[in-house]
């Protein structure tokens, strides 16, 4: 049972919150708390030793002791659901499908939507519905409407862009605030936009990276969840970088999903507070 | 102002402790708490927004709410002091002296003791007393007695073994429990004892490491504070490994000192709980 | 087209070898050469811009200029084949099957042999033959005989132990010299043998690792191909370490396979010379 | 004895070059060769087992077999010399002075020039001349002229900008082509220019970096020699990032200096070919 809180900081918050828990006879397994002193802002993650709690009661009790404008997120102990959008590259989707099949993803994959047919056969193997939504011969609006129509048939907590190579419009993104997770194949903010490995190769960098982030309406500018790099050298062609990069794309997306699905990430503005293990 | 606590776990500890702080009108800047569920053990680090507190009063109030057998460590906001023991290699001592000179060590270096004269000239440059204690023509007991005699002239919180290549006897170690910090030039528990780089070279490993740990009476077996590795390959001779290894020895010792001197490390048995930033 | 050479070092080897190539009108794309000066031993990897060469002719010409006792390995440009042995854990096998399905493994998976049925359904999805060989109610000899019998029906270059949790006897290993690749879930030589994560947890290390190595008849003592580590802290239980460890096991095995399958690894005694990109 | 070569690629280059060495009775300890197939460009680093050679003779023999427009760099086996420019931060200079004092820098520090007096006392300790060149009350041109005047009194191979916080004009830079090495406190090309840590903090990145590069006339755009990163999280203030960043700035500059001073770096246009160990 996880509770995430963010609010203006003031003296005695931890005492007040933990008293609420003690009064409700809830044992705190782990408390992670962070105060941004400059911004006078308080963030808390509580892990409670209980699968079911009276969430309404606890929330009311918390609202009673927290400053106005606070945000409380009580996560029911049910498995989350995700929808996955892909284009042609298999590595991130493959990793997600494997974890899903063996119950280690921390969520269940409800459907896969591809703007190419390429990954249908892989998805089929794992008995997950695959929906092909063509982006050719369609306006962006029409394409996104078609995607939304498919999504409308499912219930899900998050949309995962697992190497989905279309840029989503602000309108689409706004419909799922802080619920779309993307993997970008560069160490943001370096190499925003298209062909980051080509850009990296031309600049002659000695490290390449990948960034998992929530999607907002500015391209590659959303709150960063996780980043990772891998060393390269002069001998790596753009193709080599693409190949190497896939390894960290898969790994950093897996890590970001784990953090988000375990309710370890609090979004505040354009940043994240991430309470790792 | 830092308070470290460890005790048996029970429901309501965080509430009780933070109520003590709130009652004393102390604002918690940062609280890091960890419960080892298997061992039913509770660890807490509190950073309080206050330079001076009535420590006796706070400790009494805490003892009142904590279970018996608890350990409370209230760290006065005064700069710590360290003594440094060395042999011939300069890199760790050099780094410590530089940080000390520019006030970024988080402690003041009170003296350097060498069982060789090699590092006197470096130490002299920074106006730190250097004491040469010869280990030749002496029994281990006599050598350690001489070291103790020098140390007896100084007040210090920790002894840093900055590539000090003599093994200290259990008797010496027992006099400074959890107060001697060593840098061992391997990724413990691999390559315990002498010539770890030679051992690593013979085994053909692809990574070499360094380990900073508290010294106990079993060689290289004390609680680990920090570890780091660096990649190597077939082309690295033992000498190359020694050279490369120095970089991480210096870096991992610096990190461990920072963690210890900022009161981020709680020792429990043969392990550490480390509350990093 | 790859040529690997190892021999005693002497003046003029590179000149002589590259003259052989020039005479055969073969263009060298990349030459990686290493001389172990202490051991007076010479290693070379040549990448030639040609898919088909007269291997017998080139080998004869090389033998003409190399010192006696040299070893020449001319790798025909055909896709390698592998057999995979597993127990219950899916992550390494899953990664291998995905890469195999999308033609990025650099080899084709001929069969999977499991001493449990657990991974049959995954293997079936990818239309790779799965053979269950029971180890219960059988002597080790009888078990290995049964495995050998299955392997006898396939042609393969390497056997991959993808978290295969049985120790193979020297007799079995001797039948496939430098052709069995294992992933061990520790940073060897730390934590040899069973339950390395439990050992790591008890020792309180701050990094855990994984090691890919060729199997020899001494447990966990074969030539190391690749190693990797991941940071852990006090809060990681043994179970957490097992979970985290799987990520690097998969990643380090994938890297080792890539190195071996691209003919970048020369084994000499208990060590490897690895010519990375 | 090191020889660096770059030229247009053609069949038989390695054979021809190694024949030149064999004819001159020079034993090749290590040969590192790289062909950029796309650009049809050949790079070679030869380490020869000889301290003194007839450089003119070898160069003539090489010119005879290499294509027109080739570049040959025969490095005499004499210790290199460096000049160091600094502002106020001590960490990079301190590291360089320590290595210089203990003869592990691979070069001798001839002088230190500061646009502040801050680091004079440190430099004095190591008996290296310190020159204060004021940038206040002076035009940039006058300032650079004064720096040049000081430099004119020394002989040196490289100028090291060890956290020198003034931007040098194209004219100044042009006087020392590929001979000025800078450490920039970001993972280039992210966060070019001033206050990269503030920029990184505002973007909420999860890794910060440092980049050592040759200085050209475009700010932070010169050929990259080495890069490194360090993880950060939400709890790191700008000040924390500055502190953490110093550790990798020092480490990545040290590594770049080692690579350059061991003649392992070939510059070609805006990129480097780096032959690491």
UniProtKB/TrEMBL annotation, chains A, B, C, D:
Domain ACT stretches: 2-81
PANTHER family: FORMYLTETRAHYDROFOLATE DEFORMYLASE, FORMYLTETRAHYDROFOLATE DEFORMYLASE 2, MITOCHONDRIAL
The encoding gene: purU
Molecular functions (GO terms): formyltetrahydrofolate deformylase activity
UniProt-recorded name of the protein: Formyltetrahydrofolate deformylase
NCBIfam families attached to this UniProt entry: PRK06027.1 (NF004684), PurU (TIGR00655)
EC id: 3.5.1.10
EC top class, as a word: hydrolase
Keywords on record: Hydrolase, One-carbon metabolism
Organism this protein belongs to: Niabella pedocola
């Amino acid at each position: 049972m996880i509770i995430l809180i963010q609010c203006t900081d003031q003296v005695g918050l931890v005492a007040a919150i933990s008293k609420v828990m003690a009064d409700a006879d809830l044992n705190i397994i782990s408390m992670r708390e962070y105060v941004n002193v400059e911004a006078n802002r308080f963030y808390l993650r509580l892990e409670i030793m209980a699968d079911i709690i009276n969430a309404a009661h606890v929330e009311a009790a918390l609202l009673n002791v927290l400053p106005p404008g606070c945000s409380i997120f009580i996560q029911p102990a049910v498995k989350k659901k995700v929808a996955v959008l892909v284009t042609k590259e298999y590595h991130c989707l493959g990793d997600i499908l494997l974890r899903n099949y063996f119950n280690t993803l921390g969520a269940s994959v409800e459907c896969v939507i591809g703007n190419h047919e390429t990954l249908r056969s892989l998805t089929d193997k794992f008995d997950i519905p695959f929906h092909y939504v063509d982006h050719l011969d369609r306006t962006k609006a029409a394409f996104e409407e078609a995607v939304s129509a498919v999504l409308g048939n499912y219930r899900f907590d998050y949309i995962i862009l697992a190497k989905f190579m279309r840029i989503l419009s602000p309108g689409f993104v706004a419909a799922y605030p802080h619920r779309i997770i993307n993997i970008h194949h560069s160490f943001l903010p370096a190499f925003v936009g298209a062909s980051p490995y080509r850009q990296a190769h031309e600049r002659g960098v000695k490290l390449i990276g990948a960034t998992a982030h929530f999607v907002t309406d500015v391209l590659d500018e959303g709150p960063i969840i996780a980043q990772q790099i891998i060393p390269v050298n002069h001998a790596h062609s753009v193709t080599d970088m693409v190949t190497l990069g896939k390894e960290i794309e898969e790994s950093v997306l897996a890590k970001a999903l784990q953090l988000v699905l375990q309710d370890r990430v609090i979004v505040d503005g354009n940043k994240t507070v991430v309470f790792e293990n």
